## 1
Amino acid sequence: GENVEQHPSTLSVQEGDSAVIKCTYSDSASNYFPWYKQELGKGPQLIIDIRSNVGEKKDQRIAVTLNKTAKHFSLHITETQPEDSAVYFCAGGSRYSTLTFGKGTMLLVSP
Amino acid sequence: EPEVTQTPSHQVTQMGQEVILRCVPISNHLYFYWYRQILGQKVEFLVSFYNNEISEKSEIFDDQFSVERPDGSNFTLKIRSTKLEDSAMYFCASKLGQGTPNEKLFFGSGTQLSVL
């Protein structure tokens, strides 16, 4: 089955800095890679996703890149704000498989 | 915006007791899931459900677990005889379909299960 590794486990940045979270996956059949943000006491919320036919996708301050050859994908948050503080999970899967999640990255943005 | 609803938000039970966690998926979604998250750990897949039957389950989902869609709106997870290690946050999730763009998985806010 799929195995998703995520790094770092914690990330502290100053407000306005950029944050990068990296994930690798093992199953070459995986072609769908969402990112979820989980705030304290809440369920994971989908913030951006990318499919394997695309190398990069942007949505305002958030971008995701995918290197299918190397089997890794990354989340980039620019101009971080305190409200970006949360746990971020990457996940991988395909049309016919369930999502496998990484272990999560706790992002702390200090004002 | 439509959302996945879970009840209760917190459930405390004694070891060996049965619990039922309830979920109302987004109304036009066809695929339903249960995940769990032990404190500080990653989200783990338990079971997926489509067309009134289990389509996939993990090793965690043993004979003590069962799922049901008793009517057109509810989706339940039953743990027959709870163990201490069942203590976790349980998330229900649903999606419209498979393939672009229906594969987006939406999560509820979870039920925190504490087994004493």
## 2
Amino acid sequence: AQSVTQLGSHVSVSEGALVLLRCNYSSSVPPYLFWYVQYPNQGLQLLLKYTSAATLVKGINGFEAEFKKSETSFHLTKPSAHMSDAAEYFCAVGGTGGGNKLTFGTGTQLKVEL
Amino acid sequence: DAGITQSPRHKVTETGTPVTLRCHQTENHRYMYWYRQDPGHGLRLIHYSYGVKDTDKGEVSDGYSVSRSKTEDFLLTLESATSSQTSVYFCAITKGADTDTQYFGPGTRLTVL
């Protein structure tokens, strides 16, 4: 069985500050891990994914995430927050192979303040 | 743009009525999924399909059925809608050989009164 825990349903940062969104996972198989972003009234957009090729994954819009097997974590970071980063972020875990079913975390709403 | 359209985008219906939501893709991708999104729950898988007439249940399939008679269309049916099915419904696909990454449609907001 797979599960994802996102710590903090709401995170607030100042513009220019570091963004850190936390994700811990549980999986019985080597996982595929994803971060998605959702802007208001839109669908989910893929930010980045981990597929075991490299532990540090770079995504779009300056975001990156590091896979740490020992901590079962896949935290999302961005060095400097921008107002346009305000959105809801979802971490998801999936197994390998076709028909991959994803299990999502409950989401973290990021607020960026001036 | 994931190349997915969902219809309708918004619907209000009454308890006990049947409702069908449509997901349409134009590139003949094999895998398609239906999720529901609710506050505090993230997204939860309802049903998925791995080909024409090949479907399977997800985590929250009770009260829902699906059909896929053509590659491009994946239909989600609520046989008798209940207020607990008020939600935002998202369709997702995988593309080509990358069957691990899902791409999402714009969603359908369904309200059951």
## 3
Amino acid sequence: DAGVIQSPRHEVTEMGQEVTLRCKPISGHNSLFWYRQTMMRGLELLIYFNNNVPIDDSGMPEDRFSAKMPNASFSTLKIQPSEPRDSAVYFCASSSSGPSGNTIYFGEGSWLTVV
Amino acid sequence: GNSVTQMEGPVTLSEEAFLTINCTYTATGYPSLFWYVQYPGEGLQLLLKATKADDKGSNKGFEATYRKETTSFHLEKGSVQVSDSAVYFCALSPSGYSTLTFGKGTMLLVSP
């Protein structure tokens, strides 16, 4: 089975530019998560979708960040305009609830640098 | 609220040494508990999990036991290898929820 697929793996962009990160969850999974990892804050949950519907977006830093999930196999995280403090690794993850408990599987991350 | 506390690193060991990374949690109800591992330049991989009290998760020689009385889920390995060098994250998923709350991670460095 293919895991969670993220693109791009690495992105370097200038301050003020729009950044779009993409994610394809594991087929059959009904929950999708966007996490951000920085040295200062560790791993933070940005937003969580269930059955394509945003359930909890309280971790989205500010209005510059937006996320969509138009169908069960695709999600985007957009930053517009980007700022240097947005530099981080952004992870997409997915899971499928089951009797053995929720196990969340992570993609390899999108490493974003804003200069 | 829910939180996870891990011992600060880095933990530096020689090959074949015994490893313990402490993890304690705060949560209501009966969360599921996880250990994830992140190798340099890579994403997080599930290492092991436990879904109820007294469960023991194990994988690749690593073990952790869900201790509700001490709200702990310490990670252990009897003999570490250089290839175990990575950052280890303890996490919980509250009962009835799908999200994960992570600890800050503990870096493990194993020297030959």
## 4
Amino acid sequence: DQQVKQNSPSLSVQEGRISILNCDYTNSMFDYFLWYKKYPAEGPTFLISISSIKDKNEDGRFTVFLNKSAKHLSLHIVPSQPGDSAVYFCAATSGTYKYIFGTGTRLKVLA
Amino acid sequence: DVKVTQSSRYLVKRTGEKVFLECVQDMDHENMFWYRQDPGLGLRLIYFSYDVKMKEKGDIPEGYSVSREKKERFSLILESASTNQTSMYLCASSLAVQGATDTQYFGPGTRLTVL
């Protein structure tokens, strides 16, 4: 039972354009969401998070949007850069130590 | 900066061997975690520790055990390695903040191959 789903295994975007990565969840108890970025042969690094009391959080080129009624969150990267090419994982938690991770989306930014 | 280090980047072991994966964090974090990452399955929690000598099972603890004798060090043990334990193993740590959600910081991972 996959509580956090990333339905697109991969995404290709031209440099300078917007990248939109999507994540759906099923558990309405989740109240905090995170995005991690992972390069090959490295551990995931924290990118951005959002609490369920907000619907948007921005950090530079990265914005996370949360739609609680649809149980959907998305990560927008504008403008996309070749260095953004990585696997992106969304994660959700219900206020405990336990994160539930999605399966990841591989983003490729084409120069 | 939080630093989480893992003892090996790549490891090759034979079926039936006992395998130790070591993780050390330098930020005095209370919480430490072991995950495995497999294609199409994301990151799955194996074990979690919230204090020295304290541990809880995650989603897939079968075939694994853990040890936390010192706050900064968390070991994952495969008692008798099997081929289905071939995977990327990731250690993470977080500061236990009362009433708030902690950010987990990950090590670089150990790619374990069991032959």
